[in-house]
Amino acid sequence: MPEQPAPEAPGALRLNLRIISVVIFNFAAYLTIGLPLAVLPGYVHDVMGYSAFWAGLVVSLQYFATLVSRPHAGRFADLLGPKRVVVAGLCGCLISGLCYALAALTATLPMVSLLLLCFGRIVLGIGQSFAGTGSTLWGVGVVGSLHIGRVISWNGIFTYGAMAIGAPLGVGIYRWGGLLLLAGVVTAIALLAVLMALPRPAVKSSKGRPLPFRAVLGKIWRFGTLLAMGSAGFGVIATFITLFYQDKGWDGAAWALTLFSGAFVGTRLLFPNAINRHGGLMVAAVCFAVEAVGLFLVWGAADPWMAKLGALLTGAGFSLVFPAIGVVAVKAVPAQNQGSALATYTAFMDLALGITGPLAGLVMSYAGVPVIYLVSALLVCLAMLLTLKARHATAESA
């Protein structure tokens, strides 16, 4: 992607609007992801009559496809430009909606219907990686690489906002009109997004010979590892806080999740310039410290309010970790490889969230639920120390 600064220095509102005008396409993509998320497991298990394994597989196929296709999304964004990649990703979301519709229409043929759902989830996963990576790079091309941290932050806000809106909305649509209506809504959203994206001007790709994937990975794996370690705290809160509350005999786990999500989004909105002012690694180190305090509070919570405060601090701390380290990771490669770098960097979080669940479940089975928050807190502390070490090494080499 181009390294040129934005041609002018717009005010904060105008700058944000220019970013939003592009990352809105990622919002559309993640809305098509969120809408069927809470519906499909129950549909496969209760309506189609398949086991819980198949219900889980239908959902998980999307995440696996996203992880595998991330590097390819970045490579295509570097070669073809981010606009084309975004449009291709949105088309994948559209195809997934059509597959859901065909699955509903072939409900009397359970195997065919299941295969259509699986294919739709795979295509959706590819669409997710293309739309997410492409929209970030498109936004950077629109406002300049100086504001890459802000672009990544807004992209994350729209991502989690779409997921938060999509899940309950999808349940309501399904109750009203079944899977066929839900499929129609998914298809319509993706089609509208494609039609809105096509007329928008593309940004120029950087000239130059791109580095091979192995070289890109060699330059950013340390930053990806830091992200993966921080993502463990995010994973155990999002996945297991309900079980933690049940283990304690408390009510109100939903409030803990609300505080976690609200703090995550709120921190990005309150500190949009922190990365530019203080540097990515410094912001990341502070965020790791806050996240670790939150996880320690959850682990040692003797009352529900302590767990809620811990969830809030964990969400606030993790909020800026991705954009803060991402800024440094992307700038570690030439401009023509920024797409590959961003996609590969993001894949570390995909992988971390994928393995956190089973590993934390294994730890819980032997040591109890609270221990996973202690282990995650210690892992985040290690990430903080490694980040400070990387910042010190960077300062010395400057």
List the helices and strands and how they pair.
Blueprint: H1 12-34, H2 40-47, H3 52-80, H4 82-105, H5 110-143, H6 148-197, H7 213-248, H8 253-270, H9 274-278, H10 280-299, H11 304-319, H12 321-330, H13 338-367, H14 371-397
Helix pairs in contact: 1-4, 1-5, 1-6, 2-3, 3-4, 3-5, 3-13, 4-5, 4-6, 5-6, 5-13, 6-8, 6-12, 7-8, 7-11, 7-12, 7-13, 7-14, 8-11, 10-11, 10-12, 10-14, 12-13
Could you characterize what this model shows?
The N terminus is likely disordered. Helix 3 runs parallel beside helix 5. The chain is an all-alpha fold. 52% of the residues are buried. It is globular, with a radius of gyration of 21 Å.
CATH second-level architecture of the largest domain: Up-down Bundle
Largest sheet: none
Our count of domains comes out at 2
Give me the strand/helix succession.
Answer: HHHHHHHHHHHHHH
Name the CATH homologous superfamily of the largest domain. MFS general substrate transporter like domains
Q: Treating each run of at least 4 consecutive H or I residues as one helix, how many helices?
A: 14
The 3D shape can be described as: globular
User: Compute the gyration radius: what is it?
Assistant: 21 Å
Multimeric state of these chains? single chain
Considering DSSP H and I runs of 4 or more, what fraction of the residues is helical?
Answer: over 70%
As a percent range, the share of strand residues is under 5%
CATH C-level of the largest domain: Mainly Alpha
SS class: mainly alpha
How many strand elements? 0
CATH topology of the largest domain: Growth Hormone, Chain: A
| Average pLDDT level | 87
